[in-house]
Structures are given as structure tokens and as C-alpha cells.
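Q: What changes when iron/sulfur cluster is included in the input?
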Amino acid sequence: MPDGAAAPVMTAERVKALAADLGADLVGIASAETLNAFPPDPRWPQTPDRVSPHVKSVVAIVQHIPVAAFRAKTNIAVQYIDMLVLRRMDRIAFRIAEALEDAGHPSFVTAAQETDWNLKRASYGRLSTRHLGIEAGLGTFGLEVNILTPEYGPRVYLTGILTEAELEPDEILTEQVCIGESCSRCLYSCPSDAVRHFGIDKRGCATEAQEFGYAQITGFFDRYIGLDRDRKRDFNRSRGVFGFWQGLLRVVGSFGDCPRCLAVCPVGNDYHAYLADVQKFIPEKTPQKVEKAKAFKQARKEGAEIDGLNDWNERWVGPEGYQGMVARQVQAFKQAQREREAELASESNSRVNEEIL
Ligand code: SF4
Ligand code: SF4
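A: The predicted holo structure follows.
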């Protein structure tokens, strides 16, 4: 039973300190009022108000995906670690919700991965966690409309704690984190060519990212029902059936199956430290994709009407445009590397001197 009288008052600072202690990589706060006023798509409002009219604030937390998975030879490492990251993130979020509730503020955690079929006919949840993160000041949209955090680029998962506590919200970033059209590495890497101009063809993406997701599984049953006995036996030995089984067993394959646009994005120190070498070359890049990126660049230069950059969406892309954040990041990273190398060299010299003396 919550004991509001005995528990400390939960301020934004306390919530953030608790999240950091519990192991959240990043944390930010958005006010429910702002989230209700700026739904991602006003025709299909993914707002706290639709979930509970009592929610006052949403605490957004971020867990990064360990970078080693993006250095592996196949996508399987990312697919499995994704599930572990989500479980850890859910546990941290639950503990924050409990602490808020103990302090007298009813609170609960959103499902980080869910689909509400009353919304559009694709994977749209009751809330959009990427919009939560942006409204909580943690990043801005990339060209492929993943949230890009300055710290880890798009290699993150997010969830939200919906609380009745009035917490001081964070400021939304106005500088575009994504390098934009002149980079277009996510576009080049996409195996289903699903990246649009600050937009995504969700169905195209799902063919790779949800290889054994809902649409694929129902299609599988449709095909299976019409087969004769011999062909059913062959079907049962196919990769599709095994993928379905793995999905049931480990939730692998139903989402987050394709890591390509995450792996090649040059935002974040994790990229500079561990991915710049192995992900520099993009084998999926084609002359057609290069032309597509050039057309995007030209359209933006000419101020053409671009759906992903319209007055409503610009808020989440970063209205100030790209100001060189990644270049500044690379410089700071290289400087820190040089200082570290100098420190190590000096320690090594001291050891040698001690041995001589
Ligand atoms: S997840 Fe894969 S298929 Fe989807 S947009 Fe990114 S690269 Fe393309
Ligand atoms: S790969 Fe480049 S264009 Fe794509 S999201 Fe990252 S920074 Fe933006």
C-alpha cells in the first residue's frame, strides 16, 4: 500500500537520479499537456489522454543496444540482445513507477512494443515512444524517423512511465541531430528501400524488420491451409516454420529484425568508437538510392513541400536544421582519445622509470 506521507516528494531531479541509479542510460520528462497538444498524427491521436485522463507527466527512459551486436557477422546478435534490452528497460521503468506511486502519485508503464489496431493499419502503439523521447528532450528524428539521441544515435529503445505527478518537463531539442540528406546512409543501407524523406514506408520496412511478425505469420497460415499432405510436410521443415517457433520461444523475429539503418548511422560516440571502421562501407548502396538521396537534397534546398518536414512534423525533426552536431561530436571524441592516449603513455613512462630506478 503506498504511503505518500512517509515517502520523499518526487521532483523531476529525484526521478532522474533514481532512473540513473537503476541503470537507465538516458531519462527525460515531457508534460502530458504538451503530448496531448502535439499528437504525432492528429487524425489518429496517440496521446496520454486517450490512455488515462489523469496523467500529468510522462517520464521517458532510454536503454542503448550494446554496440558489439552491430559488429557481428549476422543480424542475429542484435535480434536477441534487443529482447534483453527491452526486458531490462521494462524492469527499470516498473521500479520508477513503483517509487512514484509510493510517493502518492499513481503511475504505470507503457508497453514499449505494442500495436493498437484502432489506429492505422500498421504497427502504431497507443503512444509513440519515439515522440515521447523527442518531447522529453532526448533526441530528434532521423531521415528514417527513428529517434536519434546525440549519445547513441538510433541504437536505442525507449519506454514511458505515465504518472499523475506534476514534474518539471525538459525542453525539446530545436537543433536537428540527424545530418540529413547529405548523409543518407540509412537510406543507402535499407534492404527494402523503405526510407522516405523524414518518413518511412512501414509495410516495406516490416518485410525485413518483422520477418516473422503478425502479417507474415497470418500469411503463413493462409498458405498452409491450402496445401496437400506432402507439401504440408515440406512446409513444416521450412525456415518459415522454424522462424515462427523461434519467435514464440524468444520473441525473436516479430520486430526489430533488421538493424541496418541503426548500424550505419554516424551519430553517437558508440559509432565513432566501435562502428566507424566496420560499418563504413554499405554493401546495399546502389546508384538508384544515390539518385533518391540527391533528389531529397534538392527538394529541401528548393523549399519544396515535403510531408515529413511539414509545419506539424518539423517540431520533431528540429526546426533549426542541422548545425554540425556530429562534426562537433567527432572532434570532441578525437580530442578525448588523444588525451587518453597521452595519459596512458605517461603512465607507461612512469612505470618504466620506476623499474629503471
Ligand atoms: S529497419 Fe531495416 S528495413 Fe526498416 S527502415 Fe531500417 S534498414 Fe530499412
Ligand atoms: S544515417 Fe545519416 S541521414 Fe540517416 S538518420 Fe543517421 S544521420 Fe540521419
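Observations recorded in class: The mean pLDDT is 90.
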